[in-house]
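#struct-queue
[09:14] JT: dropping the first one here, sequence first, then the structure tokens:
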Amino acid sequence: MNLHTKGFTLLELLVALAIAALLVGLVVPAYRTTVQRVRADTEINQLHQALAYARLEAINRRQRVGIRPAAKDAPWNGELMVYAGQDPGGNVLRVVPAISPGATLTLTSDDHSIDFNRLGGLAASDALHIVYGLDQQRRVISVCLNGRVIAAENCG
């Protein structure tokens, strides 16, 4: 008669569970950080594309094109709109979706909009910086006086 049964002993099962718990404890925080980094990169790229689009439309239309929050006096982390002309509500060219809940988007100036003149240059008298933050992720987009949009803290 065969007395050996197939299976795991209690000790083997506990060791396997301890190893699995250790792996989960290491993987979950790294996964969360990766998800936040990807989300930050995606949202800052959407903003970068919207700013580049506004600049190109200003050049193509040979008129002022701007980007601002869709609702008057709304924060920059809400929905944004790209518009042509002096009236923000007049000719909306594109709508940029709001960023993730918990993320912040701030302008380093008191301007309520970022406007490009008909030559593609920044209509403001100084370069603008847009700071994006989500937990430990931080990104900066600078809009230089010549209208160039770069993912850096200065226009150097």
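[09:21] JT: and here's the second one, same format:
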Amino acid sequence: MLRHLFTLIWNRKRANMLLISEVFFSFVVLFGVGAVLITIGKNYLAPHGFDYTDVWRLQVRAGQGQQMPRAQLDDVLRQVKALPGVRTVALTSGNMPFIFSTNNSTFGYEGNTALANVYDADDRYTDVMRLHLREGRWFEAADDASNHRPVVISQDLRETLFGKGPALGKIFTWSHHGPEATKPEDEFLVTGVVDNVRTANDFAAAEPGVWKRLLPHDTTSWETANVLVRVAPGQGGELQEKIARTVAGVTRQWTTEVRVMNDDRLSKRRYTLVPVVGLSIMGLFLIVNVALGLFGVLWYNISQRRAEIGLRRAMGATGASISRQFLGEMLVVTTLGVLGGLLLAVQFPLLGAFDLPAQPYMLAIAAATVAVYVITALCAWQPSRLAAGIHPAVALREE
């Protein structure tokens, strides 16, 4: 039976090549869209690695051409922390979660290198963000006596730099080995390891991170200070106004912008979803057009083969066998198109394309294969029923 189907397909190779091409491109489109959706879906279900609820971010700016001494800034933070409804505050760098700001660098240890996001963080940072420590501890006053810059790293960075060996107490540097790499401030002492974090958006994968300790007695003057504030549940605009007035009370030349981190997350989510939704709509549009094309081609195919169908019926073939023949032909054609798509798709996990693991690609291949067969079967079902219903006498008389 299978050999007979291949013979029929070969006899109509020009028409079937069009069907095989449509199946091939349908598979490629479904594979691409599926890989994207599976990847972002997997990322969405993964934990963020920190608690963004009830966290606000402040951006305190000095007046134009002015700077804010660290001692004066610390006084402002103490007054903000003393406000009713404020749990704790922390000083950090500008690349806070869910905003369009990044700061990364490449670090190295004994030949291993990794690109990681770099954050400045004071001793209270983990109380605000509630990072989960896997090993070691967060920064504390005892680190003031350290000859190296204390850092906390994420688990994925730990695995890249140190593998299965111990990480606590190890010292790593920037990946370049110039003279500046030997300075104590450019040598980073690992004091703790935290869970992987996803700070870009809800659909982004975890990225390696390094939290460098902000020196509490630093005499540097700042132009802009970025502050994280954890507030009690249910706080709103009234507390935001109090915070702004408190900062302005120190010096009227300072300005404060207060934003809710969860609002930043939702805004970033909407921005990220736009290309994903656009890609999905485009993929759906292409698949619908391919399905309509397959349906039309099969319908035309039956109308062109009415004499053949009538002759088969006259020689004793049943309507069910005619229907199975058309479905079988279409499934064989589909298989040939899918095999071509598989040859292309398997290159992605084999080559590690886009730095993604193999699992999303394999799931996308499986989903695309099932979807193509389902679409093809649905498109071939009604035309095959029409073929089965052709009466031999009518078909032969028409010819």
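[09:30] RK: nice, looked through the second one.
[09:31] RK: The chain has a mean pLDDT of 84.
[09:31] JT: good to know. Residues 261-304 form the longest helix (44 residues).
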